[in-house]
Amino acid sequence: MSTLAPSHVTAGIPPTASRPFRARLRRLVRRLGFWFAVAVIVSPAILVFLWMLSLSLKNELENLTYPPVFFPDPPTLANYVHVFSQNSMGLYFRNSLVVSGGATLLALLVGVPAGYGIARLQANRTLVLILIARMTPALSFLIPLFTVFQFLGLNNTLTALVITHLVITVPIVVYVMAGYFETLPRELEEAALIDGGSVWSTLRYVALPLARPGIVVATILAFIFSWNNFVFGAVLAGRATRTLPAAVYNVLTFEQLAWGPLAAAAIVVTLPVLLLTIFIQKEIVAGLTHGGVKGA
Amino acid sequence: MSTSAVIAAAVPRAGFLRRRTRSYRLLTVPALVVVGAVIVFPWLFTLYMSAFDWKIGEAAHFVGLSNYTGLATNQRFIEAIVHTFYFTLLAVVFPLLLGTAAALIFHREFRGRGFLRAIFTLPMMATPVAVALVWTMMFHPQQGVLNYLLSLVGLPPSLWVYSPTWVIPSLVLVEVWHWTPLVMLIVLGGLAALPTEPYESARLDGASEWQLLRFITLPLIMPFIVVAAVIRTIDAVKAFDTIYVISSGGPGTASETINLYLYLQAFAFYNVGNASAVVVVFFGIIVALALLLLHVRERARWAA
Hints:
- The structure holds two protein chains of two kinds.
- Chain A is mainly α.
- Chain A has helices at 19-56, 60-63, 78-86, 89-121, 124-135, 138-152, 158-183, 187-194, 199-210, 212-228, 231-236, 244-250, 259-279, 281-294.
- Chain A has one domain: MetI-like fold.
- Residues 1-13 and 291-296 of chain A have low confidence and may be disordered.
- In chain B, strand 1 and strand 2 form a beta hairpin.
- Chain B has two domains: 2-49; 74-303, MetI-like fold.
- The mean pLDDT of chain B is 87.
- Chain B has helices spanning 2-49, 66-72, 75-107, 113-125, 128-139, 145-152, 167-192, 197-204, 209-237, 241-246, 258-268, 272-303; strands at 52-53, 61-62.
- The chains are: A mainly alpha, B mainly alpha.
């Protein structure tokens, strides 16, 4: 475990008068160095978010002074009130919920059984298809889909957005679920099948209940990546059907809005995702490391 | 006699297995239909459209390969390829270095590790557009906080994304912030799988911590670093949201990557035929880069 831990390097040295002091000093320096490295590595991550929060809680005067004011004095929620009252943030939020929620639900509907089938057939070639899909730039799906939706009169509708977001959600769900079902023990399923159960009822009553943690992770990951998507909404959505990221870029621009309200809007967009991330932190770490490694 | 008995016993079992296999296949059908409609169909459609001169709302003319030959002599497209490679190189190397260092740190036991790791991974999940807005404010040459931080350590202010020279490195800074956590997680997965024996025997032989890292840890986690490099390369080549929001390919075309050029062709000029050809070339570049890195990985494995 402690492959790099310095602690027992000094353990074997016999105690003499000066050595323990020097050793302790060296250990102290090493420990300080380690915590310094931790601070350097972690601080950019947290500081950008804190700066975002700070911008959103300050009035315009404070946001534009130089040198910058770091702590809002006094903090104000006026920017949040402004974004929600002057713009249709509520509508965009609802659009995002419908699009990401709808695309995630549909993906679960088709993706969970598919993941199960792939895991039991050990059909790894199907997974390659999904990997190639991951390699394809999102814009290249948009040109054909845009053309087809134009033809069907579906451009500017939420339906078109939900369908397009399946490009994101289906591969995630299939990938995570196939990986999860592979880790489940097969004995119970075998017993159910030998007792005359069909593949479908085995999935429904044996495998699915066991796979609940995997389903939670697949759902949240699919939802997050769909929620974060910008370009599909930017191209396919109309005025009233924009998702949050598209709206933040198209409607709440630097020409129209000051920094404070923009930062407040940015927080509204990304806060749900950050909360979900913290909520399933451990599973995301496990799922992504696993998925990432299997990814090549 | 006995063989036929075995066969007779096996036949119903074989039928049973075959029925089962068919049921498993049936389960994948709905997903395959969806994937066919939203993923495979667009691929084929793109390939088909790339042979036409077509603007949305106008008639399409078959032009064979001339969209491709046009790209080969298109100065702006070639510059976009150069920008993409430059951006990708920086946006792969720095996250790999920092992510590996972070993984080595988070692999050790220390108080608050779980909490700090959670914070460290937050950028990866944050909405790119929202974060890009904040970075735009931070890059502001007069009121931005980054120039203030530079002045604190005695460095002259920078124009950041407003300078043609610095725009790509500045965008890479955002990309590094965003995606170093993913590299960290992948390498951390590799570290968790390390055997302990080599370390014990090397310590007995008097190896220093640095030697342990250099000659045992790094070679053993190299496959994971290569995997991270492949994923990072694919994502960096495809980077769009942050570039589009922060610089829109500017100033001028100084940060116009293939993806930005593609967006303009398709959704500003509605040049669908030409844009489709760009997609095909673009996809070819991505696959080639991924294969190249996997080839390096194979070679590394042979050498080891």
